[in-house]
């Protein structure tokens, strides 16, 4: 009985973190850059982007073809939520790939060449932050530093699993300490 109780708590902890993070955007830092000033809410920024559909990979828009970056205010809702939330804390010249589920994109509404309920992929490059000088040289972070920054879901799951294991150990040690078998759970 103890095993099934422990397994239940373990699975409940893991499923709770998956349920709360499963529908969020996935961010991969393609080129990590070190800087003193990162983007923050309210900044006027310029960025290049390439947007495509996850299903089939068809490109639906890009600023590169127009030869001019997009200029937006960060955190003001001028772009879809999945982009707006994930352009914060970027350095000039940093590149990210963001996978945006429908709830953080256009939802159940078709927009131009984008079908309803589409998962979107945006490749973005921060070109500038208004009022912030571009660095004279770009210092790229190592791949290991970049991968550390791109694993919040993995870290959350690992933390919840660790918490569940510790809770199971306490549960087992408490029930084993008096020599009696307890099947209350």
From TrEMBL:
EC number: 5.2.1.8
MF-aspect GO terms: peptidyl-prolyl cis-trans isomerase activity
Pfam family, one: FKBP_C
UniProt KW Signal keyword: yes
Keywords of the record: Isomerase, Rotamase, Signal
Region forming the signal peptide: 1-19
Lineage: superkingdom: Eukaryota
PROSITE patterns found in the cross-reference section: FKBP_PPIASE
Gene Ontology cellular-component terms listed: endoplasmic reticulum
Record carries keyword 4Fe-4S: no
Reactions it catalyzes: [protein]-peptidylproline (omega=180) = [protein]-peptidylproline (omega=0)
PPIase FKBP-type domain residues: 42-130
Database matches in InterPro entries: FKBP2/11, PPIase_dom_sf, PPIase_FKBP_dom
Record's function text: PPIases accelerate the folding of proteins. It catalyzes the cis-trans isomerization of proline imidic peptide bonds in oligopeptides.
UniProt protein name: peptidylprolyl isomerase
